[in-house]
Structure formats: structure tokens, C-alpha cells
Amino acid sequence: MKITRFILLTLFAILFYFNLSAQDYNAEADSLREALKNCKQDTSRVNILLKIGKIYAHKIPDTALVYYQKALEISKKKNLKHEKAISLNKLGTYYFYTGDYDKAFKYYSEAVKLFKELGDKKREAKNIKNMGVVCSLKSENKKALNYYNESLRIYEEINDTLGIAKNLLNIGSLYSTLSVFDKALQYFQKSFKVFTETGSKYGMSLTLGNAADVFVSRSDYDKALEYYQKALQISKDAGNIREEARYLGNIAYVYIIKKKYDKALENINKSLKIHTKLKDKVGISENLINTGIAYRELSDYRKASENLLKSLSLSRETGNKINEANALYETAKLYFKQKKYYKSLNYARQALKVAEYTESLENKKNIYTLLSDIYKNLKQYKKALEYRDSADVLRDSIFNEEKTKAIAEMQVRYETEKKEKQIIKQKAELKASRLQIEKEKIEKEKQKIIIRIFIFGILFAVILSAIMFRMYKQKKTANIKLRQHEKELKEINDELTASEEELKQQNEILCQRNEEIEAQRDKIKESKAEIEAVYKNITDNINYARTIQRTLLTSEEDISICLPGHFVLYIPKDRVSGDFYYVKKQKENIIFAAADCTGHGVSGAFLTVLGITYLNGIIAQKQVTDPGEILNELRIKVKETFKTFDNGSSHGIDMALCSLNTKTNELKYSGAYNPAWIFRNGELIELTAQRNPVGFFYKEVDFVSKKIKLQKNDMIYLFSDGFIDQIGEKTKKKFTKKRFRELLTEINELPLNKQKEKLNTVLAEWKGNEAQTDDITVMGVKNI
Fold it and tell me: Which 8-state DSSP code applies to residue 574?
């Protein structure tokens, strides 16, 4: 036992040494959690929660989120304004780095209000600056500049040097994004000077990185690479992994331009690993763009397309317009290289639209150049020349002699200050080298001791294993003998019981028939009970699904508020329906729709729930009001949901969707198979649908919107195909679209309640005792 105990202690000592750093990390969090258990004072509890969150912020962000939310909950409940403000700031930063810019802006703005109320100007300025960064990433450039200037004003008021430098850098970065390089360089010079004076390595690395971006725009790639690598080294020395990932990605981009694709992919993978660990969606999106470019230049078009489309999806999810424009532009270049000029033209136009929103001259210049090349290959030489001229105009405005001189001045200043620091560094290194020699001697002795302990531990482990193996063999032999004795005893017992079994057999035969009869009767009862239970369970589930579906449908009260003149005829074929209707007010726009999902009953109802949920997300959260854009977004959601099920080809939605502007009285419409009919003074105006479902389709095209100016008393009808496809009892034929059009022509001037009654009456008379063919939905809206 003493030997075993010694071995275990030895092995524990070895494991303890090799896991020391991990234990230190966990020990800090465990220590704070223990303190939290024993802490009764609310302010202290919140501060401990914030400290624990900070430990996990850059390592396990989701764990940090839990502690920040708990801190906010307590500070709100106990009215701790200062702690509440700090908690809001931490939550804003979490959502900023995970790419949820709307939530980040919300928490930062709430924090600003509290810090302003508390008179904490430094934290007020910091959160205003953060709001500017969020706006910049969303390409809301004017807002971003206003926030930066407001933050700068407060920092200057309280004489916060680092705060001033960071705002100067942010303003410079904004101008660089807009390709206004002369102003950008002015602000970079100012910020670099302040960062150098204060000794802020983090600030110096940011300034160098931004200056390198300018060198890339000037096509001075060697100088850009030099500056990125300097910024990378400073970030590594400071332990700032987020900036390290950024510069690795930028270095990869330069290697792509220099056609060194292996080096590019190596740096991209390093950067992507860090961004993924930090859940930084914006950084991941940038890495995917660079990966797509590299594979495109290597002519691996499948991988290039996969990465670029993933980046496009992620940039749209985060609302990052700059990445969206870049992903569209690089995808256009991919199709251009494949000589798919019309596809290239489609993506280039989309890229130009987003670039115009971001106001980036550099992006617009590149897109104009690509459009010129596309039109040239399409033999549309006039357009090619127009876009080439536009690109040349932008190229001339981006750089001139004064801007080049400013870059050179900044470079000279950096090199001079760098040499001064190198002299100081060399003196420090001489002193440090002596200490290092002594340290290495101690370390070698320490390593010898560890190696000896490790060797002794292994030897003891081998001896212990041999002893345990021998004990195992002895136990195994004893068990074999024991089983032999048990077998002999069992044979004797079997012989004694054999006679008894023969006597019992006759009696069992007599009882068996009676038991079989009773068993059959019991089985029949059980089967009946099971069938009844299954039927009840199915019925209950369908009824519950019907309740859920009815809850999701827009209530009559809400429809009446949005559309005072309306009726809805809604007749499900089964207890639950594959049709749904939808009404939603978004600012001055009222969106209304009638939809028919694949199938009916439970399968169709499931798709209606998804459809309504996705529409709420697109309209309420993303604030999309254009019908064509809504249907395009909805199709993406439906395809993502069903892509793993038989390619999703059997799942889709037919829909007619309208958006009515209550101020201009303009109606926009877009449809998937289902049209919109408008009756004006008894005459029919048909808005035709596109022959595409909202889902997978072999010949997919984008949905577009049609516009019409409504007049008073115009009657709009949206409907599914249920009424039209209903089989008549007498004719055994469908009602048909022609009869339905004639019916609406007859009733469109009646009061709305009479129209609904007439539709019900005609349907009942036509159907008779025939079963209902499909779910039926008819929505009528009168412009009053």
C-alpha cells in the first residue's frame, strides 16, 4: 500500500507540473465563484460577476455572457446605476464581437444615458465611441462621424490623451474606408504621434495597420506587408489575439495579390481559427472572402464559390455592408473568370448598389473597372467605355501628389522613432541577457529534477502494473475452479428436479388451453385500449396544433386596425390548414398576404407556422417592406430549413403579397404563382405572379415588385387555389379560375360582409355533399 501511495503521489506531482497554467486560470475563476457564494452585499456581488465575465470574455464568450446578464439583472433589481451602466457596456461589447450590431448599439446607448446621468464623462465618451464603431461597420458613415466627434469633444474636455488618440484613429479609418486618403492620413499622423508619446503599443499597431491599408490601395504591396507584419508583432507582444487575427487576414490578402497562395491560405487558417474561437462573425466573413479569392486564383471554382457565398450570407446576417460589397464583387470576378458574363454582371450590379450605400470610392472604382470589362466581353462597347471613364475619374480623385507626400512623411516619422526605441531596447537586452543566463541555469536544474521524478514514476507504474496483473491471473484461476463446482452441483439438482417436472407437465397441458383463451381475450381488450389511446393522442395533438396555428394567424382585431375595409374567408380542409393569411404594419406600410403551403393538414400546417415566423423576422426585425425582397428573403429561409430533406424540392409556398403605403396610397405587389386582382369601377386589373415557388425550383429567378397607385374604393383580392380547385357535386369538375373571376366581377361592389356571405353561399351550393378538395383562403381589401 505504501508503494502504491508513493506512485500515485509521484504521478500527481508530474501531472500538476504540466497542467499548472490551466489550474491557475481555473483557480482564479473558482476563487471568485467561491467569494460570490459568501458575498451578501449587492454591489460586491455585481462586481464579482463582472470580474468573472472578464476572465471568460476572450476565451469562452458565451460563459461571459451568462455572468454579464446576471450582473445586469441584480443591478437593475437593486437600482445600482453605476454597476448597471458597466454591465450594459460589457453586454454591448459581447454582442459587438459576435456580430449582433443592433443589440450592441442598444446596450451602448443605454450605458451612455446612465454614465451621463452619473457624470462619468470618460465612460460616457468611450461608449459614444463604441456607438460610432457600430455605425461605421453598418456603413452609416455620417452617424459614425458624428459619434466620433462627440466622443472626441468629451475626451478633449477631460484631457484624456489615449481617448483622444483612439478617436483620431477611428476618424482616420472612416475616411480611409471612404477612400478620402488625404484626410485619413492627417488623422493617422495625429493619432500615431499621441500613441507614441504615451507608449501605447496597441494604438501604434492599429495606426500602422490602417496606414498599411492605404499602401494596399496605392498598390505598394511590399510596404503594406512590412507595416502589417510590424503591427502583427506589436499585437502578439501585447497579447491582443483579436488584432493578431485581423493582421494575419490582411497579410493573407497581400500574399494573394503577390500570387503566393500557399502563404495566403496558411495565414487565413491562423486568422480563421482565432476569429472562430472568439465567435467574431465579421472576422470570419473577411477570412471567407480571402479564402474564396485564393481558390478562385487557383482555379478551384467550387471551393471559391462556397467560401464567397458563405461570406455573403454571414455579412448580410451581421449587417456588415462593407463585407457584403466585397463578397459580391469577388463573386462577380469569379464568374467573370469562368466567362459567365451575365452572372458576373448580376453580382457586379449588386456590389455597386451596396458600395454606393457604403460611399467607398475604392470599392466603386474596382466595380466600375470590372463592369467595363464585362460589357467589353458582351460587346456592349459604349457601356464598357462609360464605366472605364468612371473608374478613371475615381482613380484620379483617390490619390494625388499631396497624399503620397503625407504617406512618406508618416513613414519617415515612424522609422525615426523606431531607431530611437531600438537603442533603448539594446541596452535593456544586454541587462536582460545576463539575467537570462542565470535563469537558464536554474531552469536546467529544474528540468533534471523533473526528468528524474518522471523516470521513477514510470518505473513504479510498471512495477505496480506487474503486481496487479499477477493478482488478476490468480483471481481468474480461482473463478474457473468455482464455476466448475457450480456446474457439478447444478447437474445433480437438474436430475432431482427432472422427475418433478414430468409430474407437472400433465397438469400444465390441461391449464394451458384455458390460459390461451383468456390471453386472447386480454389481447383483444388491450389492442382496443391502445387503438383508442393512440386515436385520442393524435386528436389531442392535432387540436393543439390547430390552437397554435390559430394563435399565429393575425387576429381579426389587428387586421381591422390595419385594414378597416376587409374580409377574410378562411376554410381549412382539415382541423389544421396548409393555407395562411398575414397582416402586419411596419411604419407607414401595411403588409398583407394570402399563402398556400405544400400539402394540407399537419404537414401543410407545419410549413404555415414556419412561414409566419419567418415573415415576422424579415418584416419586424429586418424591417424589409418591399414584397419582392420579402419573398427572396423568405425563399432563402425555406431553402435553409429543408436543404437536408431530399434537397427540400417538395417543400414550398405559393403566395400573393402586397405592401400598401398609407401616406402615398401606392401598392406594391409580388407573387409566387398566386396573382393579385384589383377591381376598379367594375374592371379587373390583374397583377400577375412569377412562375416560381417560395422554395427550391429548377429554374429559380429573383422575385420583383410591381407598383400601382390605388384609387378610392379599389377592391383588392388575394387568394389560394382552394376555391378554384373545389370539385362540384353535380359536375364532378373544378370551379375554375374563370368562374371565380366572374363571381368576383359580380360581387366586388357589394358591402364587404355581403361579399363574404356570397362567396360562402356559392361555395356551399357548388360543393354540395362533395368532400372539400383543399384549404380555402380568400382575402378582400377595400381602399377606403
Answer: S
Q: Give the span between the Cα atoms of 316 and 322, in whole angstroms.
A: 10
653 is a domain residue? yes
What's the DSSP call for residue 720?
A: -
Query: Same structural domain for residues 540 and 560?
Result: no
Residue 694 has which C-alpha cell?
417560395
Contact call for residues 241 and 278 (beta carbons, < 8 A): yes
Domain shared by 520 and 566, yes or no: no
Which domain CATH number covers 666? 3.60.40.10
The amino acid present at 706, given as its one-letter code, is: K
Q: How far is the C-alpha of 106 from the C-alpha of 296, rounded, in Å? A: 39
Indicate the number of domains in the chain: 6
**272/248 Cα distance (integer angstroms):** 9
Residues 518 and 388 reside in one and the same domain: no
- Three-point CA angle 78, 83, 53, nearest 5°: 115
Residues 582, 721, single domain; the answer is: yes
Beta-bridge partner residues of 717: 677, 780
In a domain, 752, yes or no: yes
CATH label of the domain that carries residue 358: 1.25.40.10
- The reply to whether 525 and 654 lie within a common domain is no
Q: Is 37 exposed, middle or buried (0-12, 13-18, 19+ CB in 10 A)?
A: exposed
CB atoms within 10 A of CB 366: 23
Residue 573 C-alpha cell reads as 380542409
CA–CA distance, 611 with 635 (Å, rounded to integer)? 10
765 and 643 fall within a common domain: yes
> Would you state the cell numbers that stand for residue 205, as one nine-digit string?
499597431
Q: Which residue has the cell 376555391?
A: 723
Q: Are residues 668 and 559 in the same domain?
A: yes
Rounded-to-integer distance, Cα 350 and Cα 660, Å = 26
DSSP letters for 207-262: HHHHHHHHHHHTT-HHHHHHHHHHHHHHHHHHT-HHHHHHHHHHHHHHHHHTT-HH
pLDDT band of residue 201 (cuts 50, 70, 90) is confident
Instruction: Give domain status of residue 201, yes or no.
Output: yes
Is pTM beyond 0.85? Reply is no
Say how far apart CA 705 and CA 659 lie, in whole Å: 10
Beta strands 676-680 and 579-586, pairing class:
unpaired
Using CB atoms within 10 Å of the CB of residue 347, give its burial: 0 to 12 exposed, 13 to 18 middle, 19+ buried: buried
- Residue 691: predicted pLDDT: 94
- Residue 683 three-state SS: strand
To the nearest 10°, the Cα dihedral for 560, 574, 550, 585? -50
Same domain, 390 and 431: no
Q: Which amino acid is at 655?
A: M
Residue type (1 letter), 755? Q
Q: Which long-range CB contacts under 8 A does 199-202 form with residues at least 24 apart?
A: 200/162, 200/165, 201/234, 201/237, 201/238, 202/234, 202/235, 202/238, 202/240, 202/243
Sequence length of the chain is: 784
Residue 35 CB neighbour total at 10 angstroms: 14
Q: Is residue 8 part of a domain?
A: no
Q: Range of 529's domain?
A: 512-546
pLDDT tens digits, 148-173: 999 999 999 999 988 888 888 889 88
142 burial type by CB count under 10 A (0-12 exposed, 13-18 middle, 19+ buried): exposed
Strand order in the sheet with 715-719: 566-571, 776-782, 715-719, 676-680, 683-687
**For residue 595, which of 506, 695, 504, 498 has the smallest C-alpha distance?**
695
pLDDT tens column, 609-654: 999 999 999 998 999 999 999 999 999 999 998 887 655 456 899 9
Rounded distance between C-alpha atoms, residue 3 and residue 658, angstroms: 83
Phi-psi region of 695 (alpha: psi -120 to 50; beta: other; left: phi over 0): left
Supply the pLDDT for residue 426. Answer: 57
- Tally of CB atoms within 10 A around 441: 10
Last residue of a domain, one of 221, 254, 279: 279
User: Does residue 672 contact residue 691 with C-beta atoms inside 8 Å?
Assistant: no
